[in-house]
Amino acid sequence: MANQIKDDVLAKINDHGIELIRFLYTDLSGQVRGKLSSAGTFAERSKTGIGLVKGMMAMNMLDKMQTDTGLGATGEVRLVPDLDTFRLVPYTRSSASVICDLVQLDHMGWSLCPRELLRRQLADANTLGFSIQAAFETEYMLGEYSQDGAYTPLDTNVCFGTDAMDRADAYYSDLYECLSRQGIQIEQIYPELGHGQHEISIKHASAMEACDRYLAVKESLRGLATAAGLFFTAAPKPFEDQPGNGCHLHLSIWDKEMKQNLTWSKEGDGLSDIARYFIAGLVSHLPALVSITCPSVNSYRRLKPKSWSSAYACWGYDNREAAVRVPSVYWGKEEESTNIEIKCVDSTINPHLAMAAVVASGLDGIMKKMEPPLPVAGDPADLSPDAMERHQVVRLPQSLDKALVELETDIYLMKMLGPELANVYITVKSSEVNAFALDSDFEYAQHRLRF
Ligand code: GLU
Ligand code: MG
User: What is the rounded CA–CA span in Å between residue 170 and residue 161?
Assistant: First the structure.
């Protein structure tokens, strides 16, 4: 795989005095990991890649390698950077980063490479005449450490409260500058319902770019907090008595030339047939899909009724309790702003894997011209048993192990993953189920720390 370093990348390295470049990948447990090369060897390393032992993709979030996957001390792949993802890492002294593919020694994409999997789903979408636009909106919490190491939230103010804005003001400004320097535009940022909780949304981009940007945002959120000595977590449910942190995924389906938003229709409820089929595909796969979009043990503490996080597989217009929400459009931007929001997503994802599974589920609906169930107008938790049946509403799995069982029985998603990836993924995730089975304090603490 020839990877010719581009002039604009070289110029950035020189202009910004970059000394080290992080070669990053996300493992199947959602941890962002990598190795660094010096700027002087970057051009060469972009071509040769950096070696990585295959067993690293069998690590769980506790850094325990699951060797019963068949992966361990032997076998290598290469971390090969996608040079389009080159970004400064402004909160470091002199580093930049690139996001890497995991490439086999024979130059072929590795079956365990999440970006390769996503690329294949996006190629399928392309063959059907579609390109996908997307954006993740990340919720997270900030706090201060007291002398005994305990955490106090940065604010105890109300949702969207200005006191919380004031307390996070320096952080917000640093974040704005940091993301601007990385070419990422903030759409909105504000204090959320929880103490010290905030949300950031960024401009949509192609599905691959959206995943890469999500990583840059997540890295920056944490990196800036670390630099400022602040506590940071984006774990799905870091504290029992506080709201969860979602990472809702917004998505729209465009034609290949990106001229027309095919999710939109001028008629009726504003949704095209394509959008309806896509929603139907999503809703039908949701019980299995959450094993990939809400992939940690801690995720299932968040997916509770009446938490606006979605506890039921259903969809609705402007319904924040529905797993799939169709948000109302913006005046004068009806076509551009038509999109589908998936709420059962959180920051323990591998973003490329999650996007691949979401796109594949939606495309299944399009290919089979699936009709979605009736939209749910109110809180699905309040529906009578009869109404539940009429709307075909089912409760989403209530634990990771149950979600993994759903995944194993979803033939379509299992085929999409392929046997090797499915096996390693389920093994890694099952090891986390076992590791946290007996000690919920340990589970909360580890998820707070690692995400
Ligand atoms: N914090 C909620 C969640 O866990 C989302 C609140 C909102 O609608 O933004 O998904
Ligand atoms: Mg929110």
Answer: 16
**Which candidate, 92, 189, 179, 212, places its Cα nearest to that of 142?**
189
The structure's pTM equals 0.97
**C-beta 136 within 6 A of ligand 1:** no
Give residue for tokens 């870091």: 238
In this predicted model, what pLDDT tens digit does every residue of 41-73 receive, in sequence order? 999 999 999 999 999 999 999 999 999 999 999
Q: Ligand 1 centroid to 246 CA: how many Å?
A: 5
**Which contacts (CB < 8 Å, 24+ apart) does range 268-271 have?**
269/317, 270/329, 270/334, 270/338, 271/326, 271/338
308 C-beta closer than 6 A to ligand 1: yes
Q: Which domains does the chain have, with CATH numbers?
A: 7-110 (3.10.20.70), 121-450 (3.30.590.10)
Residue 95: what are its φ and ψ, rounded to 5°? Answer: -110, 155
222: its two tokens: 């944490």
243 CA closest ligand 1 atom index:
1
Give the pair of three-digit tokens for residue 129: 């005449």
Give 329's contacts (C-beta < 8 A, 6+ positions apart). 264, 270, 337, 338
Which ligand 1 atom is nearest residue 194's CA?
Answer: 1
**Cα(62)–Cα(446) distance, rounded to whole angstroms?**
8
CA 174 to chain centre: 23
C-alpha distances out from residue 132 to 72, 314, 383, Å? 36, 22, 33
Distance of CA 77 to the CA centre of its chain: 24
User: What digits encode the pLDDT tens for the residues 117-150?
Assistant: 999 999 999 999 999 999 999 999 999 997 777 8
Mean pLDDT of 67-85: 97
Q: Residues 176, 181, 184, CA angle at the centre, nearest 5°?
A: 65
Q: Quick one: 33 exposed, middle or buried, by C-beta within 10 A (0-12, 13-18, 19+)?
A: middle
Ligand 1 neighbour 285 (Cβ under 6 A):
no
CB 182 within 8 A of CB 218: no
The Cα 451–Cα 445 span in angstroms is: 10
108: its two tokens: 């072929």
Residue 2 banded pLDDT, cuts 50, 70, 90: low
d(CA 409, CA 233): 33
Nearest to 121 by CA among 366, 412, 360: 360
